[in-house]
Amino acid sequence: MKPCEVDQPEAIAQGDPKGVKAAAVRKLGHELGIPAAELDASRFKFLTRVHYWAADVGTYGSEAVWGEHEIDHILLYRLNAGEQLSVKPNAEEVEAVRWLGSGDLKEAMAGKGDMPLWSPWFRIIKERLLDAWWQDLDTALTTDKYVDVTSIHRFDTAPEFHGGLGDAKPLLDEVSKAEAAALKEGGEAQRRKVALDAEHEDRIVGFVGRGKAEVDTSAGDVKQGGYGKVPTHKIPKLDQLMRPLEIISALRLKCTGLLENNIKGQTDEDIEFCDDMLGKVSRSFAAVIRQLPTQLSIDICIFYLVLRALDTVEDDMEAYKGRESDKQAELISFGEKRLTDPNCSITGVGAADERTLVENFGRVARVFAKLSEGSREVIRNITDKMGAGMAEYVSADLAQGTLDQAAYNRYCHMVAGLVGEGLTRIFVSSGMESSELAGQGEQVWSFCADPKKEAANLGLANSMGLFLQKTNIIRDYLEDYVDGRAFWPQSVWKSYANSNDLGEFALPTSHGAGKLLPVKAGGEVLAKGVGVQALLCLNDLVADALELVPDSLEYLERVSTPAIYRFCAIPQVMAIATLAACFDNPLVFTGVVKIRKGLTARLIVACCDGPNAVHFWFRQFAEEILAQTKTCVGADGPVGKRLEKSCHRILERTQKRSEAWSGKQTQKRLVVGAVTALAVSSLFVGTSLQNQR
């Protein structure tokens, strides 16, 4: 907005939030038609802030999808004697306007008149704050006697505003009491801690809220940014129990040691620390890294932790607030400055285990110094490239996604394609894989002005990285949007949206040619619907990601070391499983869609069983998506045709190995069936003989 409506904390502390005042002028024009020229923004008096939430169950019933959860900045404005305002109400916002004195207002709110309904936020302000200001109006407007720039007054609304799908309920009054006690005992720092703890406990997202879906609220899931702030759509336990093969796979994975930890048992305390941190900052990659041959597993562990530390710096939107140039310098110099410092400690950055990692980064640097020259060279080179790439996005406005497809691809290359490049170079440098692994593939990539400066023939590795990253970006639509750093390309989503706001797709009553699809989880309706335009955009991005699969399969074909194959295959199979779960799924717009834990176990076991099993599962998910393309949103249009083409190419690529695996499994099932039948018949004969006796 111009003038800017965003205020830094310093503006609030000084009692002069010019952004808030500019917003007040704009909204008075929007709702009451008061011309900006008739208002003097400097005459607004900022008093304080209030925090409240309420569900509109009075209008929409007990499962209302609409409500408010907001922090309001309160301003007073007084007209001078004889001054008039031109008021022309916006009929879509305001039905009627009336001037009231303090006595008139008191009677009206007591139900004496024709205005029975009052917004909950105004009733709270009137009852708790406004009367004192009004009785001493000159003082309130001309001095700072009533100004409170440090507190956020938190109030619960009356019971008639509780409930709804956002689950509004008594909470804020207790938070306010706890803050007051903390302020008295430990000062402002302690009060802030109480407020942050309450925020994590609250976990409300302003789109759909908890609704009827289960929400994962374990403290271990709290990460930086939007992570942990939106619902995770869980699979009902009964659904999981009805899948015995997945349960068997989970037991096999847990009890038989399919994925060994080859880092465990090292006598070097720094290596022990790195192994421990690996398990804490990565549930997904820890197991596949640890099962690599010992020295290679240490190399890749350090590579992962270095990039995770770099990512922690990039993700922290608070530590460098107002110091973006410092953040850019940190990212660019990370390899040179941090990776070579055995005593490195980065304080005040990150959250939870990531904070511990960067605070003790010197221990990672000490292990890095002991790696082979080849591994050190690759890790340093990729760190420098990625840091420089991340620095480009520090000052970029990503609230509405990347600019276009090229920017989308470049971002994915910087944060994931480079990882694939680095891993491939380490594999080849170790002597465990041949240079054939560094192939170009079907996709032709170029991310700098001079293609000759690109790493030669690493297109396959880049495609693998992009496939993983694009799948994550598709799945994390809501988390990223809440965090203010979204990545869906504007050139794609704006071709489907009715507005210039990516958040439009998350609205419970979205849009879409008058057609709304029910949003469900566990068989229960979560919201009134998601528009078909949102699903068209989702399916378009799924089609784009699927086009990378042939390169991923080609890369896997070239891997010769079983442990490295498992390392590469497991994330790729998980990605296509996640993509199949997200495809044409409205739940993407109301939370995080994840695959079943049992299915995860079954896919890991399959990757341990070799390439034929991996091809079988790629084929399974491609067939699942292909079957849905007959009825999905956009089935008859360009998106549907693009999806069909991608699926058919995957099916062609996986047919031979998949059929070999299926035949082998059929033989196993026949043997198991025969043994079972023999056991049952033996039991029957034994029982009959006993009965004859």
From TrEMBL:
SUPFAM superfamilies: Nudix, Terpenoid synthases. InterPro entries: Isoprenoid_synthase_dom_sf, NUDIX_hydrolase-like_dom_sf, NUDIX_hydrolase_dom, Squ/phyt_synthse, Squalene/phytoene_synthase_CS, Trans_IPPS_euk-type, Trans_IPPS_HH. Pfam families: NUDIX, SQS_PSY. Keywords: Transferase. This is Nudix hydrolase domain-containing protein. It comes from Durusdinium trenchii. PANTHER family: FARNESYL-DIPHOSPHATE FARNESYLTRANSFERASE (PTHR11626), SQUALENE SYNTHASE (PTHR11626:SF2). Residues 1-123 form the Nudix hydrolase domain.
